[in-house]
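Researcher: For the record, we're logging two predictions in this thread. I'll number them. Prediction 1 follows.
Model: Prediction 1, sequence and structure:
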Amino acid sequence: MRFVFLGAGAIGSALGGLLAQRGSEVLLIARGDHARSVMANGVTVRCPDTRSTVHVPTVTGPDQVRLTDRDVLVLTTKTHQAEAAVEQWADVPVHDRDGTVLGSAAELLPIFTALNGVASEEIALRYFERVFAVCVWFPTVMTEPGEVIVRTLPPRGIFHVGRYGVSSDPAADTKLVASIGEEWAAAEFQVIRSEDVLRWKYRKLLANVGNVLQALLGDTAGAEDLRRAAEDECREIFASAGIAFAGDEESQAAWGALSIEPVPGEPAQLGSSSWQSLVRGHSTIETSYLNGEIALIARRIGRSAPLNAKLTALARRAAREGLRPGSLGVEDLRAHLGRV
């Protein structure tokens, strides 16, 4: 197998780099300064206990790639970037070992949606026959091109994986996930096959609704009640919509094996993916698929999620105006939310 990481930012570069270090065949699809740095110097992966630079094959688009029927696509963009990536790769031809074109990527290759939120699976399924949902529990940060920070000791990350949509060959899917689990285990990752992986993705979504506070405030001290309020609103909407998600004890049992530790030379607390978007000056942010997802679910059932909706709008504005984490103080945020 070759793992082709579509949108290799923090998650894709860290996962791909650590897999390549242990001998897996990996291809990173990256962009901008990060792509140029990795192509020139390799990707540096810094962990609490190790630091390594790995030279991983890296390209910037499908015109530079010859896909084969051995490839596994792993989507690691932000959710708001997912559709563009999926559409870009869906019709890329897939070859056999003799160079004969067998069909397109969408027809033949599995795609694993390893990103936050619960929308990317439907996006991928519009194009691809074989979609596997992945709940990612793998704290990583990228603030500089060519370098990613992994904040865990072994196991480095935990991934719940399951087929999305009805499978025509469940046995083949089970075999594929098992094979990936074995190969990723060599790089100190845990892959857990799940028949109901969306329960885990909704649980991760609940955990992610607080990301926006760090993105806006930088230091979230004094905003604990706002996080709880956003999470409580999320739980209420899930209950009203009949959405099942892994409970607190269940998720602690599954994810409690991860030990998050400081990385030498870095602050003890590093930011979420939303925080990273503002730090890097991106004009878009994934919050519309996190807090905004809660607002969407609420509207579908005739309810409202005013706190999560307001947080979504503030995050959009921050990205649009080029604001950095800490541009708002806690009291300013309270005023914007009407919670003074």
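Researcher: Logged. Prediction 2.
Model: Prediction 2, sequence and structure:
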Amino acid sequence: MNILVVDDEKLIVKGLKHSLEQQDYKVFVAYNGEEAFQIIESENIDFIILDLMLPDIDGMILCKKIREKYNVPILMLTAKDGDYDKILGFEFGADDYMTKPFNVLELLARIKAITRRLDSEKKKSILSIGSLMINYDERKVFVEEEEKDLTQKEFEILYLLAKNPGRVFTREEIFKYIWEEDPLDVRTIDVHIKNIREKIEKDVKNPKLIKTKWGVGYYFNKI
């Protein structure tokens, strides 16, 4: 895992770098916000340890700037020990918060806890049913490892049905879930289902994944 340490206190950076490398992490270091952002844009950074007080930019602002473009976990370090700063840090996108001076063993434990939680969440965002794989975070659908090009609405309908296998949804329910408004013309659901089947089913005339409950609606077949 690639970790970026952003702090202008060189002794702290040196100590953190040594401790992290002992855990087999690859460590990048930056002493100000500009250096940090250059590294983030040029390297594949998996985790950021970010000091609140930097010489060229406020750590909160940098955290927000990073979060606008990247979904990388951020642990903030600060000499301030106040609830307001913690709350503000979380609002700006930090995943965790530690006050200096800190215990390095605790910091390592928090890094592992955050990465475990995020890995678990990522796995939950992936549905795998037979030869069909749906990656919700990346908005991608694969059938037998071949990516299928679904529209936004097609993807949302497919994901809704697939994560609730066996549950029959009426056309009105699907419309409300996806469009988040009262149904106007529910026949559009039939069109979307037809298009989805053409992209994921082997035999459109005899679909195995998305089934029709005649007179009611649609459901995803339990495999």
